[in-house]
């Protein structure tokens, strides 16, 4: 009998957003990050404890069943800290014709040096890589926090030089079960 699939630790799901990648997307924030970038915009997601346990097939089914979305965006925390179960999700999402975008504090070069990252990388269309650097805010590109981070096309599905990658930043506010959910990346005060 095969072992049970590894469960994901999920902090938040937003099933319909335009602030976390190209087009309408299903965004998933994972719980836990080993990097601890100073000024992290999601400090509550750093501990590996917390969030809720979700089976990869269950999450993939929710994403695929969401009407009108272009793809899935994985954020964190650090998605590559849960690379194996997220690879299962990404593969199922891609098999359904949707795109996959992943935000990682690791560089692509560091990820390629890790055997456990290969499968998730292979199922990723767009990768935003590099640690967040609060001293280097990026006000030109969408979805990117600091100028050292790169938006890398790992397939030919997207062109990171497209004008839609350079539109103004967005923030979305939602009231869900009495809880205010804020996602996106606001421009720092005094910057465009």
Give a quick set of tags describing it.
4 helices; 17% helix; 26% strand; globular; 192 residues; single chain; alpha/beta
> For the residues shown, what is the average pLDDT?
89
Number of distinct beta strands: 9
Tell me the Rg in angstroms. 16 Å
Largest sheet: 7 strands, mixed
Secondary-structure-derived class: alpha/beta
Q: Secondary-structure element sequence?
A: EEEHEHEHHEEEE
**Apparent shape:** globular
- The proportion of residues forming helix, as a percent range, comes to 10-25%
SS strand fraction: 25-35%
Distance, first to last CA: 57 Å
SS element count, helices: 4
Overall description:
The protein contains 4 helices and 9 strands. It has about 190 residues and is of the alpha/beta class. It has helices at about 55-65, 85-95, 110, 120, and strands at about 10-15, 25-30, 50-55, 70-75, 100-105, 125-130, 150-155, 170-175, 180-185. About 15% of the residues lie in helices and about 25% in strands. The chain starts with 7 loop residues before the first strand and ends in an 8-residue tail after the last strand. It is globular.
Write the topology of this structure.
Layout: E1 8-17, E2 25-30, E3 52-54, H1 56-64, E4 71-75, H2 83-95, E5 99-103, H3 108-112, H4 118-122, E6 126-129, E7 150-153, E8 171-176, E9 179-184
Parallel strand pairs: 2-4, 4-5, 5-6
Antiparallel strand pairs: 1-2, 1-3, 6-7, 8-9
Helix pairs in contact: 1-2
